[in-house]
Amino acid sequence: MIKIIFTLLSVLIFLLFPINTFAANFGLSVEPPLLKVSIRPGKSITQVFKLTNLSDDDKLFVARIVPFKDADNYGNPVIIPDAKADWISYFSLLNANIKYGEPFPIKSNSSEQLIVGLTVPETAKSEDIYATLLISTYINATDIGYQGSSVNASVASNMLITINQQEFPDTILKIEKFFPIDGTFIKIGNFYLADNITPLIFSSMVKNDGDYTADTKGVFRVTTGSDKPIYLDGILPVNIISKTTRVITSTGGDSFKFSPEMGNLGFHKISLEIKTDNSNTSNSITIILLPIKLGLGIAIVSLIIFTILKTTSKKQSFEIDTIKNK
Amino acid sequence: MRLLKSSKNVANNLIICFIFTLLGLYIFTPQNQVYADNLSSPAFKVNMGTINITGGQKSSSTFKLTDTVGQTAQGQFNSSGYTIKAGFQYIYDRIPFTFKISNLSINLGSLIAETPALGTNTLTVTTGSAYGYTVKAIEDHSLRLSDGITTIPDTACDLASPCTQTDATLWTDNTRYGFGYNIQGTDVDVADFVNANYFRPFPIQGVNQPAIVMSRANVATNSAATVTYKVNIPGGQAAGTYQNNIQYIATPAF
To answer: Does pTM surpass 0.90?
Structure first.
């Protein structure tokens, strides 16, 4: 009897007072996501990075500086978490209570400032150094207590550092690819024949063959055969690190697009011009705009009208002949 | 006969009309002109601005340009020996880069032979002022017991179409064992993760490079994707608690 009462009581307690369980989540924001510095050897700077813990609970984080050398065509660094570089020692954390590689707490929905110091020795060679400030969740337990995977998260902020006596040391930008990828066109030799009412979309890629980062300030310009500009779009200013290639886009982040108007006929020059603080480059293609679609449309309509007229006239002449014969 | 002749005349007239229409269009259609020489020079001369002061887009139907004003004082590099630019030119407010994961504990429960166990969590990214991002994934090792020897190997998916760390394929055969993941949602390579039955094994830290699981070459606001973790064991799998750690690295583009 006592056993039954105890069981019923347990069930009642379980139903009335359920235990709240929360799956641990993660949320972290970093600001700024990019730091670009030009610095002379022998100089020092500091930069504050603001971290906000957006998780439902307090968390321990670890900060590390990870070097990188390479990036994909969209400006995403290729990070190798255990990569090493001699110049890592140029960086330091100036917070009194936070050290690189050691856990530090941030309360839920609170922020912490990381004060990153960069001290470039007098003897440092002139070069670009690229690093990521990687903030990771701290996991210490070897046994996570269940069967499955524990998840660890890292959030990065990129640092592009130019060490040189000049603010903008020269670099070499080359427009590697610039051609239409969508629209109604055909390529004949060095020219493109394109329809004058169909938008043309262009693919463009720039390579930085130099030793220093450059950005992609400039314009996408369409001019007539008499060199009169008829369309202009800005280039989204993004960074191209040394020895990498990057897709460049319009200010809206899309591929460059030129929508010709009905009156745009004949030779047109479409050019991409990049003029930055440390490099200039340009590339252009010639397009002959013709009323291909309009012409085809009118030709088809004319053909239909002509056929109708021909058929009608045959019918009528047959009828006339029949009347005459009668 | 006369009618046939007149229809030929109509056709000729149509062709003549067509030619004249084209000529007319070319001559009389006003051509929009923008004076790029005047516009381009300010765009080129504005040195990359310190963000947060002022800036914006200037546009009409025939041109679109962007600039920022409020550059770090000219000559600062000469006097102080450095310039610092935090943020991006094309976003006029400094907005943080944010990464969220809905669940850090993927509990796969008790495993039953040839009955796949699943777990999920959701990754969410907001690029803020960055123009693009990637989220990469890597595991410390295969699921393994605390002895460090006995493992559930990473999946190779169905025999007919083996998967790799960068190429997801079908994994529906319950006699194919291992551990792998599928991802569905925004900014996921849908050509690779065609549907929820396509899986990949995680790359292993120290051996492989992290694999891209989400990416976008543009601004992202709350881009979310759900990762499904799947494990399937054979009958002879040693009993015990199999564990590993999976790391996600969210990186803004520069």
So the answer is: no
